[in-house]
Amino acid sequence: MNTRSQELNHSSPLRRLGRYGPLILWIGFILFASTGEFSSENSSRFVRPFLLWLFPGMSEGQLAGVHFLTRKASHLAEYAILAFLARRAFAQSSRVFIRYWWFEMALILVVLCSFVDEFHQSFDPSRSASILDCVIDVVGGLSVLFLFRIYDRRSSRNENQHPVDD
């Protein structure tokens, strides 16, 4: 199959939806998660009883600390998933430019979403915007992107060492 027919195969609307749909849905989830529905007060209604069920002897201070760490770990995971979905969409794009620059484009998306997320939270009285959360978000996304970059480099090195006969 030649390059042009491969690009046409990648560019069908259904394939684009399959690549970009999950990414767009996840960005929507991130924006929903930055509303009051996911405020510290609301999440503690679920996290606190669960922690007390697991560890009945936890003090209030320990509960608050674990709840705080759980929320920060959620930021990390949320943006790791965003980076995964962005990499998936961009690395398989029908556009050569997007495929070539997938890492940079995914990183820009992670950073922009993080800033928009925190900016959005600044308008909700039950939420607060935090530059620390932006840093955690970017670290979560960047970690996944670096793992893919390392994997891609190792894969291409292995392919070059062991060429497949056609």
Short description:
This protein is mostly helical and 166 residues long. The chain has helices spanning 3-10, 13-33, 40-54, 60-91, 96-100, 102-121, 131-161.
**SS strand fraction:** under 5%
Q: Over all CA atoms, what is the radius of gyration?
A: 20 Å
Q: What kind of sheet is the major sheet?
A: none
Secondary-structure element order, N to C: HHHHHHH
Question: What global shape is seen?
Answer: elongated
Count of beta strands: 0
Word description of this protein:
It contains 7 helices and no strands. The model has no long low-confidence stretch (mean pLDDT 87). The protein has one domain (3-161). The relative contact order is 0.12. The protein has 166 residues and is mainly alpha-helical. It has helices spanning 3-10, 13-33, 40-54, 60-91, 96-100, 102-121, 131-161. Helix 3 packs across helix 4 (60-91) and helix 4 crosses helix 7.
List its traits:
166 residues, mainly alpha, 7 helices
Can you lay out the helices and strands and say which pair or pack?
Elements: H1 3-10, H2 13-33, H3 40-54, H4 60-91, H5 96-100, H6 102-121, H7 131-161
Helix pairs in contact: 2-4, 3-4, 4-6, 4-7, 6-7
